[in-house]
Amino acid sequence: MFKYFFKKDFKRFFTEENSSNKCIRLSLSENLWGPSSKALYAIYKELKHVNLYPENSYQKLKDLIATKYNLSADQIFLGNGSAELIMLSALALFKTESVGITSTNTFVGFKFSIANIRGLCFEIPMSNNFTIDTKMLILEAKKLIERNFYISAIYVCNPNNPTGTVISENSIKTLIDFGKKHNIYLIFDEAYMEYASRDRTTTAIKFINYYNKILILRTFSKFYGLAGLRCGYLLSNKEVIQQLKRFQQNVVFNVNRFAYVAAFNSLLDRRYAIRTYNKNLKMKKILMCGLKKLSIEYVNSETNFILIKIGKNYLDLYEFLTEHKVHVMPCDKFGLKEYIRVSVGRKQDIKHFLSLLKQYKQKMGNI
Ligand SMILES: Cc1ncc(COP(=O)(O)O)c(C=O)c1O
After folding, report:
1. At what angle do helices 134-146 and 169-182 cross, to 10 degrees?
2. Whose Cα sits closest to atom 6 in ligand 1?
3. Does residue 1 have a pLDDT over 60?
4. What span, in angstroms and rounded, lies between the C-alpha atoms of 258 and 220?
5. pLDDT at position 14 over 80
6. In a 3-state reduction of DSSP, which class is residue 88?
7. N or C end of the chain: which has fewer CB within 10 A?
8. Are residues 138 and 189 in the same domain?
9. Residue 134 has pLDDT above 80, yes or no
């Protein structure tokens, strides 16, 4: 009965549940279509084991990820969301009072982790087209080295949150060569990589066996729609993984049973991946088209969110949208005043968001 319910009525189940919330949450770049029905069914089957700890080697999932990227299972480390892995890598890899370098207008988790371990964080301005300026990152790193700072790690979010932009393969390679020359860890956060188009984007995974201090972070929270379960993974070489493990001895079982089986079954569900990719692309086009019609500037995005320029009224618009139960992310905390970040939602979410934007424009004369 349950099986039938999940397989047949999954779509209706999800739409009804979400619409009964009344709020439209476009603020946290979640997958608003929900997870794979195979993942949901696996969670249901797992319920009867909830009294037991999970199998702590998480071997099946590691093997599956390893096969997917042509790596070995000992190059994979699972976390309670990739946020845990960002914190853990700072704990494990940073030397006291050493430096982490990142870009401005990027995911704030990097600088918070560096601050937590009392490291120094340097933020390098982004280039004018909202992409991470890897040349400037290298230039600044060289200056810091000349001033005898010890650089532990350079962080790159690719595709970048909140701009949705990507860096070229050439930039990735140059950065890696620089890191290799100066013995610096390179941490690539690829939380949104599954949404990016293959021909315009390169994953740093292809360089993992070229330099032994590359770390790549991925998550099941975004593309796979499992944000509420908390599961992410880190790819690196096995020595780095061993170092991370030493800092995690007292937190065994950091991935719960449901997250584990849901992640495993999501990865196996090829049809879900194709559908999610295509739906996101289609809805993103509708959103961009609507913004164009309203003459509102936005940044082209390789992800499931769009950075939109609102201007000085951005907080007023944010409040207006919130009053109408549409939540978006004001980007001042990313250092981008005048911008909001909006998730690519379902068709009805986008239509509602665009109609509110139009109303607001009419009310204000313009924005
Ligand atoms: C770039 C980036 N990295 C990491 C995370 C953390 O994701 P999670 O801990 O859900 O895997 C987020 C969440 O928004 C993100 O945008």
Report:
1. 10
2. 83
3. no
4. 12
5. no
6. helix
7. N
8. yes
9. yes
Please name which of 269, 292, 270, 273 lies closest in space to residue 281, comparing C-alpha atoms. Answer: 273
> 345 and 314 share a domain?
yes
DSSP 122-173: EEEPPPTTSS--HHHHHHHHHHHHHTT--EEEEEEESSPTTT-----HHHHH
pLDDT, tens digit, for every residue of 303-332? 999 999 999 999 999 999 999 999 999 999
Residue 36 within any structural domain of the chain: no
Q: Nearest-5° angle of CA 280, CA 283, CA 286?
A: 150
Give the total number of structural domains in the chain: 2
Ligand 1 binding residues, C-beta < 6 A: 29, 81-83, 107, 109, 157, 161, 189, 191, 219, 221, 227, 232
**Together in a domain, 24 and 90:** no
Query: What is the tens place of the pLDDT at every residue in 202-252?
Result: 999 999 999 999 999 999 999 999 999 999 999 999 999 999 999 887 778
